[in-house]
Amino acid sequence: MGDNRLMIKVTVNDRLYELQVDPELRLVDLLRDELGLTGTKEGCGKGECGACTIIMNGKTVNSCMVLAFQADGSEILTIEGMGDGEELHPIQEAFIRQGAVQCGYCTPGMVLSAKAILDKNPNPSEEEIRKGISGNLCRCTGYQKIVDAIKDAAEVMGGGGDER
Amino acid sequence: MKGNIVGHSVPKVDAKAKVTGKALYATDLYMEDMLYMQVLRAPYAHAVIRKIDLAQALAVPGIVRIITKEDLPGLKNHGLIFKDQPALVGIGEKVRFTGDTLAIVIGESNIQVRKAIKKIKVEYDKLEVITDPLRAMEEDAVTIHTAGNIVCTHKLDKGDIVRGFMEADLIVYNEFKTQHVEHITLQPDAGLATLEEDDTICIWAATQWLHDTRVDVAQAMGLPVEKIRIIQPAIGGAFGKREDIIAQLHLAIAVREVKRPVKTIYSREESIIATSKRHPMIFRFRTGVKKDGTLTAWEATVIGDTGAYASSGPAVVHKGLYHCTGPYDCPNVRGVAYTVYTNNTYAGAMRGFGATQTAFAYESQMDIIAEKLGINPIELRLKNAYQVGSTTPNGQKLYASVGVKETIIKAVEAFERLGGVIR
Amino acid sequence: MKKRGVGIASVMFGFGYGEGFPDHSTASIRIKPDGRVEVKTAAADVGQGVLTVVSQIAAEILGVPVESIDLVNGDTAVTRSSGSTSATRQTFFTGNAVMNTAQILRSIIFDLAVKVYGKTYPELYFENSCVVPHGAEEKKISFAELAKIAAERGEKLEAEGSYFPITTPPDPSNGQGERVYVSYTFVTTIAEVEIDLGTGQVEVIRMVAAPDVGQAIHPQNVEGQMEGGSAQGIGMALMEEILFDEYGTLLNPNLSTYLIPTSLDVPRMQTVIVEDEEPLGPFGAKGIGEPAMISTAPAIINAIYNACGVRIKELPATPEKILRELKKLAAGN
Ligand code: FES
Ligand code: FES
């Protein structure tokens, strides 16, 4: 290994890292194995489940489908960067309030997808929410309480208004 | 009884750790000096293994150890009900499905371990592969386990089935079939094991029953129970899949050999191929009913495909039989359930445990009967639904908390409130 | 063209291992020196919420807020068996074990409090991690103080308890037994589907479910079980099937070939909780984990028949299967 390593600069949760990475290393492994950010989960490694969802340059991506060096120069938000220290982000609070968390393995990815939905549209309809999380599989909840949590967060965050 | 706290939806105690990503699942555990483990699975679903050549695999850089059955002659089978499942299949022994394990490979990185696995060469003699439980039950079928392909048979006989059919105005016969279903726990199987100074093996892995896991791992390895310690990390879904213990056992074997922490994470593909499924089941129901809809007789044959190993199968399949009349009172019930081996991936516990499969069958049967009698399906259900004093197919008298009629009435009301129209 | 239909299914589920199997749970609870309550069980919380449920039960009986419960979970070195998280048994079995244990501890605390007060008050009550004498509320003693007093006297504010009900092994010749399962949960589901007669595609558009859970300890968790279970039921009814070829090779081992429901496949559903109390359950509760998924698939299959006259007798009801059956129906007419 070693020799053909690439130098990258990447900002993760507002912290700048300069790293040497193997060209085959996936972004999910960089985050989990090398930066210790294990909140990002792997459920399939093939872009099929959304458990590894992160926000990269403002857009959700499956971090299992991105190579680490491709993240060079980018800004990344993982679940560890949601909220502010001890303060939870309103989306996280809404997930707890609505009972949207069961086993929790899909939760980090769901929360980030939820953030991306609300960043784009502070007052999404149920259908828009369902479309927005359709790349994130959840085997436990049947999605209803997740949808409710995202609506709830939208209201708390001031998008509110239209009940739908 | 509702209380100040009971009956109220307080915030779930584990939710905060989960929404912040702080909850640690087995996949999230790391230790210094940790090695990675993967296993080589069977090349064919039913075969006798002749040779396992490790030479090239051992030459892959970073490989620390490859363990085969030859290294552990004393290793015993494991299993939740019957001890019929080997953690390793050795030379001259049989693999019974494509998830059986031939070698445990341990190395410094996962990439190296996967590379080495591809370099192991296996020679084997193929046997007839049985994927159909009905074929497995035939006289001339090759036996998957020495005692035969029928793992066990359960019987049910309540009341007088002959009289029940004589009293019937209508007799309805149907056959129903269910499929192999996969749990898809979002967290794939994973675990980490360490060897403590006093030789205790510690295993962190999702399991639904850690004390049972401990005993089964210990007996398979011939160790005292106290020498195995199971610690529960956060569990990324279970649904029955995490009752079987194969990854834990491989980790225990590995850590004892290499004396360094060992971690494993299954790929999704491996998890689907090698771990338990929902039993596919066949139901043959003959039901006797009076013109007014009163059930008089229910005869059931149930066949469940438990795949290569029994796992929870002997309990799952007969639970399907014991629940064959659903929530309906029928005075005369007779039935038999066969749990059958095949070379499919073994089937075990999955949410509903046989009662899920049988419900599809009896509720379809009830609708078919309703139509034949020209009775509204809801009325037919209400007419036969259990109440206090009814007896189940097992002859158990229900003495309290029999809310089935209320569930029907409440469901209909709610459906209509939402604007639904029952046709 | 699209057609709609409605289907109903009611189910029963005997929970616990039953059949004479030695099914039991053990729990232990102690008051820690800081007055917080430690509840130890080996119950695996797979997301369903048993740890919340046992916290509620302990908090209710000991008169403390849920926030002052500290949980010690699954570790064979420090917890005794709570049985498995399966058979829909944890709320009932570990719930009962925690209830029994909390009651024992409550009586231990009560005895100590009587000694501390030096007189027999008509009654003491528990409130907010304190023992409070009726009519002399200002003299209340906190659990932290009581723990200190207990330590000074060489006593311990801790208890261990179990729940170990007896069930009957069914007679092997006929399956008959007096008490084969401890109790039964019932659920009714009504589903409405819309079928595209051109493609055979089935969409579940409306669903209600009414589970009889005896008493909901945590209603939101009960809904969560129903919603998640129903989604799995939709998968089983319409799309999920692991396939093997004749050589026993599993053909679809990934999530692009083995499809499970996404947020677009599951409709908004309504859960109506029915509470017909089970006298043996903790606070009257029964389990719901497994029965939550059982009635969904048959309700959908019955709705498909109601919509278009196709009776699916082999799961799952894939579009191809429905189209094939529709063709057969058309040919028959
Ligand atoms: S792990 Fe990346 S999409 Fe499943
Ligand atoms: S909560 Fe378990 S997968 Fe979503």
What features would you highlight for this structure?
heterotrimer, B: 423 residues, alpha+beta, Aldehyde Oxidoreductase, domain 3, Aldehyde Oxidoreductase, domain 4, 7-stranded mixed sheet, 5-stranded mixed sheet, 12 helices, 17 strands, C: 333 residues, 2 domains, 4-stranded mixed sheet, 7 helices, 11 strands, elongated, binds FE2/S2 (inorganic) cluster
Short description:
The complex is a heterotrimer of chains A (164), B (423) and C (333). Chain A has 164 residues and is α+β, with helices and mostly antiparallel strands.
Q: Overview of this structure, please?
A:
The complex is a heterotrimer of chains A (164), B (423) and C (333). With 164 residues, chain A is an alpha+beta fold. Chain A folds into two domains: 2-81, Ubiquitin-like (UB roll) (Roll); 90-157, DNA polymerase, domain 1, CATH 1.10.150.120. Chain A has helices at residues 27-34, 90-97, 107-120, 126-132, 144-156; strands at 6-12, 15-21, 53-56, 59-62, 75-77. In chain A, strands 2-1-5-3-4 form a five-stranded mixed beta sheet, covered by helices on one side. In chain A, a hairpin with a 2-residue loop joins strand 1 and strand 2. Chain B is built from twelve helices and 17 strands. Chain B has helices at residues 15-19, 55-58, 110-118, 133-136, 161-167, 210-221, 246-258, 268-274, 313-322, 355-373, 377-384, 404-417, and strands spanning 35-41, 47-53, 63-67, 94-95, 101-107, 121-126, 150-158, 170-177, 190-195, 201-205, 228-231, 262-265, 277-278, 281-289, 295-307, 333-341, 347-348. In chain B, strand 10 (201-205), helix 6 and strand 11 (228-231) form a beta-alpha-beta unit. Chain C has seven helices and eleven strands. Chain C has helices at 50-62, 90-117, 143-152, 219-238, 291-294, 296-308, 319-332; strands spanning 2-15, 25-31, 37-40, 69-72, 124-127, 130-133, 141-142, 158-163, 183-196, 202-212, 269-271. In chain C, strand 3, helix 1 and strand 4 form a beta-alpha-beta unit. Chain C is elongated and about 90 Å long. The chains are: A alpha+beta (164), B alpha+beta (423), C alpha+beta (333). Chains A and B meet through helix 2 and helix 3 of A and helix 1 of B. The structure holds FE2/S2 (inorganic) cluster (2 copies). Residues 42-45, 47-52, 62, 64 of chain A line the site of one FE2/S2 (inorganic) cluster. One FE2/S2 (inorganic) cluster binds at residues 101-106, 138-141 of chain A.
